[in-house]
Amino acid sequence: MKKTLLLACLTLSANFAVAAEPSKDFMWGAASASYQVEGNVNQDNRGKSIWDYYLTDKQLAGLGVTGEVAINFYDRDQYLKDIKLLKSLGINSYRFSIAWPRIIPDGLGPVNMQAVAHYRRFITDLKLAGIKPVVTLYHWDMPLALAQKGGWENRDSIDWFNQYAQVIFENFGDIVQDYVLINEPSVEVAQNIKAKRYLAGDTSDSSLPIIATPATLETSLKSYNHILLAAAKAKESFREGHYKGRLGVALPLSPILTAGDATDQDKADAKIADGVLNRWFLDAIYKGTYPEDVLALAKKMNLKIDVQPTDAKTIHDAGFEFLGINYYAPFYVRHGKGKGYNPETYIPKGQKAAFNGAVRPDQLTALLDRIRTEYGNPTVIITENGAGFPGEDKLVKGMVVDTQRCEYIKDHIKAMNEAMKHGSKVDGYMVWSSHDNLEWLEGYKSRFGMIYVDWNTQKRTPKQSAYVYGHIIKGDKIDTLSCK
Ligand code: FCB
Hints:
alpha/beta; three-stranded mixed β-sheet; 15 strands; 43% helix; binds beta-D-fucopyranose
């Protein structure tokens, strides 16, 4: 090849590579969820959610460990300071959730306009600061009244959610563009199963059954189907209402890995685990079918999962505009006890791990590659990615040097960029979380924020990861940024 031609080719391919990386409009953000940050649980006539019941009434996270104060984010004086801080770090979008029991205190019935006014003010304040709101309609705060009617296990939940979603579209449709309809069905269902185990007095097992086991498969598949149908119905209402914007769901997707010396039974369980955790959702949304292997297993086990013949097609036909991916870690799976499907998760010896599992940025690239090649390359927003490490977040002389979280974020952004170079269409990346906050049944022990929060004084201190993230957003070369 002639020298000039070679040069031209090289420049061309270099241009393509650059073009595939985050553009100027890329959403660089952080995420949070209402119950984890808001506090002020009695403000403006908020109704009760299942989490008030778990943590305040039943003290499942420990004595006095509740969301009653959290990080006081419902308070305007407080959140205005936080918005200012986020802006100073360079963040241009913010994912937060609206609490259903604030908007409709009993889950169904009259709309609480005080809460509507609060969130409209908050969204306007974000926008005035140049921060784009990404609004999650449901991040697990099921109104208590509806939880008592069975929550997502009740097929009526499809209509309950749709009615709530319509209220959101009517009241926020003019100021919001990007909506995440529901967050992480499989983790929410797992949290509820774990809470029920605790309520029944069994505290011996603190694991979270995110990959449904035989004991939890019926509740899980039934709830997943209803949640996806609820999102699809809300999407249809949005279309009928002629609102403008983009809608998607946020799924906790995780590659399923097995050991090099895995047995056939390990591999068989891993395949079903992938079916339950990943393909169940992705196949329904992008192919209009539920995975045959999971359906066959449910049939063999005689499970009543309430999947009607047209359900998966209805979910597909909704035509969500983007896929929200919450990625933390892959799962290593092997066969547990007994015959038949019974997966067990583990972390291999020597594998670095965070609170939410193995640290494997390469698996984020693999996941995005899979979404692109197997599911038609939909637009993706990384709606959550982040980490917390035992003992890492120490406030010393007014500083928190969270080297491991900082490296985690750097490595995962590089992994995302890699997939974008392969052709994945990623529109945004949100760190979980902006601030340390209430980690559900784990209480305040597990910090995930880029901003340190002193639980007693509510004082905020940006950590090293926050500064480094700000530099990445500005366009500095990731490898030149130090996490120490
Ligand atoms: C995700 C949840 C989020 C937070 C992070 C650490 O599964 O969506 O609320 O708890 O984990």
